Amino acid sequence: MTEPNLTPDEIAALFTRADGSFLCARWGRPVAPVIFGLADETLDIFRSAIRAVTSHAGLALAETDPEMGSNLMIFFTRDWDELADVPDLDRLTGQPGLPARLAEAGADQYRLFRFDADGGIRACLTFARLSGALADAHPAQLAEALAVRAMLTFARDVTPSRPLAALIRAAYDPVLPVASTDPSLALRLAARMAAGA
Q1: Which alpha helices (DSSP H) does 7-153 contain, by range?
Q2: How would you class 51 by CB atoms within 10 Å of its CB: exposed for 0-12, middle for 13-18, buried for 19 or more?
Q3: Are 24 and 16 in contact (CB under 8 A)?
Q4: Is 163 or 5 the better-scoring residue by pLDDT?
Q5: Mean pLDDT estimate for the chain
Q6: How far apart are CA 95 and CA 90, in angstroms?
Q7: 99 — alpha (psi -120 to 50), left (phi > 0) or beta?
Q8: Quick one: 165 exposed, middle or buried, by C-beta within 10 A (0-12, 13-18, 19+)?
Q9: How many angstroms separate the CA atoms of 161 and 127, rounded?
């Protein structure tokens, strides 16, 4: 049985933050990923997932980003305190005291986007704590989920699915803006999904 496409309201909700603001942005440059904190045998699973998801979106992968070196950084820790060992973490994230705040909130993961002048995604930093709810996650499923969540500025965690894959394909249609704060974009995305974009 085929899963139904997302409705415009459902799409808008995926990009609407708690304060009511809407932001749907996609990558405006090739993705140069780097992964920290995983054993070598698990790294290949994550690299393959990133390659598959970016290819599905029609997004190019690169060895390096000319400005940042790597622009999709995924950090895995057993405890948020371990992030204190990351050099220049405060400068990298622009958020002093991030490990302590994540620990206090009991967070399992955290994602931070940086943007280019045109609003497109310039960088995505993902932090995942593997000792909490993610401890029993299947590596391939976790890899796919983290890669999918880095493709667009989702306002909440999303679970990979056929409708979500169709939404990502639609959002990377070159006809659409690289970024928008107008919720009416959800109507255009829904139309492209319906047309099989």
Answers
A1: 8-14, 40-57, 89-93, 98-105, 139-149
A2: middle
A3: no
A4: 163
A5: 93
A6: 5
A7: alpha
A8: middle
A9: 22
- Amino acid, res. 125: L
In angstroms, the CA 107 to CA 104 distance is: 8
Contact 46, 143 (CB under 8 A): yes
Whole-Å CA distances, 145 to 90, 133, 138, 192:
26, 14, 11, 23
Cα separation, 85 vs 68, whole angstroms: 20
Q: What is the pLDDT of residues 17-36, one digit of tens each?
A: 999 999 999 999 999 999 99
Amino acid 156 reads: R
Closest CA to 143 of 170, 117, 109, 175: 109
The band of 4, judged by pLDDT with boundaries at 50, 70 and 90, is: confident
Q: For residue 174, what is the DSSP state?
A: T
Six-digit token string for 121? 């995604």
Question: What gap in Å lies between CA 163 and CA 6, rounded to an integer?
Answer: 6
Q: CA 68, CA 27: separation in Å to the nearest integer? A: 14
Cα angle 150, 115, 77 (rounded to 5 degrees) comes to: 45
| Chain segment 123-148, per-residue pLDDT in tens | 999 999 988 778 778 889 999 999 99
A 10 A CB-CB count for 177 gives 17
Provide the pLDDT for residue 123.
96
